[in-house]
Amino acid sequence: MIELTGSTLTLEQIRRVCYEMETIQIARSSMEKVRSSRAAVERIVKEKKEVYGINTGFGKFSDVTIAEEDVAPLQLNLIRSHACGVGEPFPEIVSRAMILLRLNALLKGFSGVRPIVVETLAELVNKQVHPVIPQQGSLGASGDLAPLSHLALVLVGEGEVFDKGQICAAGEVLTREEIEPIVLQAKEGLALINGTQAMTAMGVINYLEAEKIAYQSEWISAMTLEGLEGIIDAFHPAIQEVRGYPQQIEVAARMRGLLQDSQLTTRQGEKRVQDAYSLRCIPQVHGATWQALDYVKEKLEIEANAATDNPLIFDDGETVISGGNFHGQPIAFAMDFMKIAVAELANISERRIERLVNPQLSDLPPFLSPEPGLQSGAMIMQYAAASLVSENKTLAHPASVDSIPSSANQEDHVSMGTIGSRHASMIIQNVRNVLAIECICALQAVEFRGIDKMASRTREKCVQLRSFVPSITEDRIFSQDIKQISEWLKVNS
């Protein structure tokens, strides 16, 4: 069980909650902060102080004063009117991460919600009740308003949830799970939707998947190196150390470890003086991707423990400040950076695929075909990889460079960070498929060279993969092989 404090949540803990369904509990000290913050909101309402989001309208309507008897209906109206997301829903695992992150933010004690709100969010996590949240419709500033409104709908017994692979009315599932819908009070609707939790939740899941494929790209490229009898000298520690990037040094060290007892790699001058960049520069290119991923991880862990709604309540309600912590620019930049960095793993992988299949670039059978001419072998797999790489180039265009004013120009600069996080997810899946294609080609190449000569670690992977993807002895529907390996990569290391 993981204890939430509002300040100490790590990506590893999020992984355990989202992938392993670990349960959570709320720290007692954090619940005290929630109670104190709520008492401040209730004093503001009672004393009829005019404070944005508590007894005023929203956005351009911030200058409209709301009567005390309408403060509660104001919050429900907000949730219903803002729940206008469109498109396919976020994956269920992202929905779960979104609840967790929104709960953690509220536990910081600056948002003014009642304890029942955070307790109900915790129930959703622990009973695995995950809202159906459309992916499109957020500008990534003023928070992820549309996506988080769909999350908030479930708290009041409206909207839809995932239920054993089906989509069901939230009210039915809450009744079955004995979760009592809440009636929103002053500020609570706004506190639930003013935040960056959609882009951050998607970003965290993206990071966890990107981290895995970055490691996988190393052992897959190591098999390719063996299939092409690549030169191991390029990974010598001295080369890496004189440049000085820790990530480059680490990639080269892992490559040496993967290939340490291989009889298929060569030394400088044995067969050629140097390899092409797609082999020789693996530490430099993959290492640069790791640099970007390290940056992304740092930003996601900060955001996962941030107060991102508006206004925020300080000094027991004596200080209530309207600011801009809901603006998603830090995560927007991180997601755009991730897109470019992860896409590069596919760019260089596709070039290695070309070297494996092109008879002008190696002494392997043309297109790794068992009968060149009669059998096309891996010819069109390279086409598919090239198509995915090209698609990634359009998806990698930064979303954060765009902004469209909203709310009658009151909200005149936005981040588009949620678009960036969605595109990053698409790129990651494309990269995984490209790596699956490289894997198929590398397996065929090392078989041609002799599996018994492989390094022990790459041979172990070869045996695992050959248990469900057979050698190419004749042409078949390779789409199925790509899918099988891609799905295997998604759940294995």
Tell me what you see in this structure.
With about 500 residues, the chain is mainly alpha-helical. It has two domains: about 1-195, Fumarase/aspartase (N-terminal domain) (Fumarase C, Chain B, domain 1), CATH 1.10.275.10; about 205-490, Fumarase/aspartase (Central domain) (Fumarase C, Chain A, domain 2, Up-down Bundle). It has helices at about 10-20, 30-45, 70-80, 90-105, 115-125, 145-155, 170-175, 190-195, 195-225, 235-245, 245-260, 275-280, 280-305, 330-355, 380-395, 415-450, 455-465, 480-490; strands at about 1-5, 25, 85-90, 130, 135, 160-165, 165-170, 310-315, 320. The protein has a three-stranded antiparallel sheet. The chain has a two-stranded parallel ribbon with strand order 1-2. It has a two-stranded antiparallel ribbon with strand order 3-5. β6 (about 160-165) and β7 (about 165-170) form a beta hairpin. α1 (about 10-20) packs across α4 (about 90-105) and α13 (about 280-305) packs antiparallel against α14. The longest helix is centred in the C-terminal third of the chain and has 33 residues, at about 415-450. It is elongated, with a radius of gyration of 26 Å. The relative contact order is 0.12. The mean pLDDT is about 95. It is found in: Cytoplasm. This is Histidine ammonia-lyase. Its EC number is 4.3.1.3.
